[in-house]
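Checklist before submission:
- one chain only
- standard amino acids only
- sequence pasted in full

Submission:
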Amino acid sequence: MSIDNFSPTIWTAKLLENLNAAHVYANCLNTDYEGEIKGQGDTVKINSIGRITVAPYVKNTNALVPQILQDAQMMLAITQADAFCFEIDDVDKAQSNVTLMNDAMQEAAWAMADVSDLWLAAQLAAGVATANILTPVTVGTGATDKDAYEVLVDLDVRLTANNVPRGAGRWVVVPPWYEGLLRKDPRFVSFGTDANKTQLRGEPIGRAGGLEIMLSNNVPVATAAYTLIAGTKQAATFAEQVNETEAFRPQGGFADAMKGLQLYGAKVTRPYALASVVATAA
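Returned file contents:
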């Protein structure tokens, strides 16, 4: 196998494509400030404008005084750096070098997306405005259990109460056991649209309570208590870059190897546009 087949440009593009497909939490957020990330520790300045004041107006008066806009600045820091490194032995090259490489890059992308999504979920959970954290619930089908569908409605209502636009693409991420309860609920599987039913075959799995439902094994959990997070793309921003991929021949063997570096960071910019609830399976 020739190292010439390990074109970093080609495989970097392939890695990014696979990363985008594997992310769950990251795909729920905006990437408005991703830009060019050159090294760990880079920061992106996020400027925002304060709220505009509205006052009564009386015609034929000259009482309007221009408001001086108050701006604010937040820093999106690229704090995380993950790396992968693998080799393909010359003995295995035969006719499968491209297939082996493609499979390996898919695995690398999945592994990195898994690590970054787990980190991102924790950042979102910590960034929810205190007033938007609902009372913990036990979810199930028993007489004293909270209904899974209604919990999603409660999260959606809390977002509405904070003036989060309904057209802002609201989402919620749930673990597999929670999805199982939803699939047993006729309000979710029987009364939806044809598109809703089709989406049950993959991710996103459908809509309920005004939220697009995403499925993930990276929902934050502590002692069987899962933190369900709902929000919109405008609640937080995510920046990611495969900073470098490099092909090389390791010493002491006969193999071609590839290594890569992924840099990323996130910032909750609108805590009021997130809501959460700790849910435990009955």
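Reviewer check: Residues 195-203 have pLDDT under 50 and may be disordered.
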